[in-house]
Design brief:
- β13 and β14 form a beta hairpin.
- Helices cover about 35% and strands about 25% of the residues.
- It is α+β, with helices and mostly antiparallel strands.
- A five-stranded antiparallel sheet has the order 5-6-7-8-9. Strands 10-12-11-15-16 form a five-stranded mixed sheet, sandwiched between helices.
- α2 packs parallel to α3, α3 crosses α4 and α7 packs across α10.
- It binds zinc ion.
């Protein structure tokens, strides 16, 4: 091997994953060090990824990966590193230089044929990905429009929509009077399962409380539905079950998008004090207990995930007491999503909080598992922390939520 070729290979070995990825025009995510995307060679969705910090690349579709730019280039371009030609071509790609003259290289025809093959696959892949993204975006937009439709067709609570006010009062949320955000649908269908032609089946229809999920522009991206049955204490919701399995069904549903949005309950988001937690009843009960403060916006996140956002995997920990059997039947501690937020999150990985908020009071659920909830609340606080903002976490009595506390205190 000539000195020039040896140097050429040495130089190529020194190229970082990041430099090579730029030369190869791979896709970089806007933030972060992990860059998932379709494999240029095997295609698929997010099958391929490189990490500029760990100096690693990986293809799930090809079942291959490594920690060098040459290997990454060889996989993406379909080159065989065991052959001298393949190795030199891969070096040439990551260096963005021609192979020095002494080197053997693939013939011009072979090279042209390989390029053409890859180009065709690339075009096909782009077209597939674009079609997938279009149909996903279309589906999401349709679902959002349906959700907005359900919300807009419902009546504001005031002179109308008394069952919503009665329901909230029965759940310990005081007398709300009129509500700007919460609405009432007198007869909303509950879809469950499909008929033999694949069409959705209407299992039940009845009165429901409808709340919007709104984004920072206050436009509804989804809606939250709670079916009501004022004759069924203590939760005042109908009992719905699957007609085949008898399994009890949830009486709350979300339509459209939830991720990144929030459910407004009372007040105006322009104020500096926000109070809320996971559920509507809990937030409303706390609002009633505070006397629906004028200076406060009350909200619900819909669920704990949307309140706290995803956890940093390295902050996972073993539950101090809870155990569950593994595949071999040995009891192992349950793993809990940790208190630290995942780095490099997207804006809509959890609900939004307006920048002007100075006091964000987070309401914990006392009737959910304590350790898991505590970790999630700590994560929510870390995620929403800003200079000049205080974030107290309020806990109800153990085993209770604020709604049940209010109901029992009232009796
Ligand atoms: Zn691949």
């Amino acid at each position: 091997m000539s000195e020039a070729i040896k140097l050429f290979i040495e130089d190529a070995r020194a190229v970082s994953i990041e430099e090579a990825a730029k030369i190869m025009r791979l896709t970089f995510k806007r933030t972060g060090v992990e860059h998932p995307q379709p494999c240029p060679h095997c295609f698929g969705t997010d099958t391929f990824s490189f990490n500029t910090k760990k100096e690693k690349w990986n293809c799930r579709a090809g079942g291959i990966g490594g920690n060098d730019a040459i290997g990454m280039a060889a996989h993406c371009e379909g080159l065989d590193l065991k052959s001298r030609e393949g190795l030199l071509e891969a070096c040439s790609i990551v260096l963005d230089q021609d192979i020095p003259d002494e080197g053997e290289r693939e013939s011009d025809e072979d090279r042209a044929a390989r390029k053409k093959r890859l180009e065709e696959r690339r075009l096909q892949n782009d077209a597939d990905a674009a079609a997938r993204a279009d149909s996903q975006a279309e589906f999401r937009e349709k679902e959002r429009a349906k959700a907005r439709g359900i919300y807009e067709a419902a009546a504001p609570v005031g002179r109308h929509g008394r069952p919503v006010a009665d329901y909230l009062e029965a759940r310990g949320c005081g007398q709300i009077g009129a509500a700007q955000w919460l609405r009432y649908a007198s007869d909303l269908p509950y879809w469950h399962g499909q008929d033999e032609r694949g069409r959705p089946l209407e299992l039940y229809s009845g009165p429901a409380m409808v709340a919007p999920f709104i984004g920072p522009d206050l436009v509804a991206i989804g809606c939250h539905i709670t079916w009501l049955d004022l004759k069924r204490p203590p939760k005042y919701r109908p009992q719905l079950s699957d007609s085949d399995t008898g399994e009890l069904l949830p009486t709350k549903k979300m339509r459209g998008s939830k991720k990144g949005g929030l459910i407004p309950l009372f007040g105006d988001p322009s104020v500096k004090r926000w109070v809320g937690g996971e559920g509507i009843e809990n937030g409303a009960a706390f609002a009633a207990w505070e006397g629906f403060r004028e200076d406060t916006f009350y909200f619900a996140a819909g669920d704990l995930g949307n309140l706290a956002g995803p956890a940093d995997p390295s902050s996972r920990f073993a539950h101090p007491t809870l155990k569950k059997p593994d595949a071999k039947g040995v009891a192992r501690p349950v793993t809990i999503a940790g208190p630290r937020p995942k780095p490099d999150q997207d804006g809509d990985d959890a609900m939004w909080v307006a920048d002007h908020v100075r006091e964000l009071v987070l309401l914990a659920d006392g009737d959910s598992e304590r350790v898991m909830t505590a970790a999630a609340m700590a994560r929510a606080r870390a995620r929403h922390a800003r200079p000049g903002r205080i974030i107290p976490i309020v806990w109800p009595r153990a085993g209770y939520d604020f709604s049940r506390m209010a109901v029992e205190t009232g009796e």
